[in-house]
Amino acid sequence: DVSGALCISQAWPGMARTIYNDHKRFLKTYLTSYPGFFFTGDGAYRTSEGYYQLTGRLDDIINISGHRLGTAEVENAVNHHVAVAESAVIGYPHEIKGEGKMLSFLPRNISCGYTQETLATELQELISKKIAKYAAPDYVQVTHQLPKTRSG
């Protein structure tokens, strides 16, 4: 069981070979971080059986009071709650901490008897226990839709 950066050791068909008009940037971004490997920009977890689970983008980092925290780490903790279907965490400028954290989530269509305030408190406590107190979001909001990229 190990976590780390997802890197590829061999080329594959259709792999990018450069960035138009900026080959040095391509080399710096994808090939210099881990010499001999193509760095995908994603984190991964490999089980002792050899299965891989993508854990999210490594560049989605929020710096809260000097603590670097991945958004995927927080989203993964929140998604374990029975009332949460999907979540997203974003950073925002904070005068004291440098960056603060806001959590938006889609509730599951279940009647658990949760109020929005109760659920927000439970999610903050869940993150505090699974990760750390500083990782708890400043704001929690229920939403009916999360923004998506074209690839989901």
Describe the structure.
The structure is a single chain. By secondary structure, the chain is an alpha+beta fold. It has helices at 23-31, 71-78, 116-130, and strands spanning 2-8, 38-46, 52-57, 61-64, 67-70, 84-94, 98-107, 139-142. The model has no long low-confidence stretch (mean pLDDT 87). Residues 73-152 form the AMP-binding enzyme C-terminal domain. This is ACS2L synthetase. InterPro entries: AMP-bd_C, AMP-bd_C_sf, ANL_N_sf. GO terms for molecular function: acetate-CoA ligase activity.
Give a quick rundown of the structure.
This protein is an alpha+beta fold and 152 residues long. 21% of the residues lie in helices and 36% in strands.
CATH architecture level-2 label of the largest domain = 2-Layer Sandwich
Number of helices: 3
> How many domains comprise the coordinates?
2
H and E order: EHEEEEHEEHE
User: Main sheet, how many strands, which sense, barrel?
Assistant: 3 strands, antiparallel
Topology at a glance:
Elements: E1 2-8, H1 23-31, E2 38-46, E3 52-57, E4 61-64, E5 67-70, H2 71-78, E6 84-94, E7 98-107, H3 116-130, E8 139-142
Parallel strand pairs: 7-8
Antiparallel strand pairs: 1-2, 2-3, 4-5, 6-7
Organism: Urocynchramus pylzowi
Protein name: ACS2L synthetase
GO molecular function: acetate-CoA ligase activity
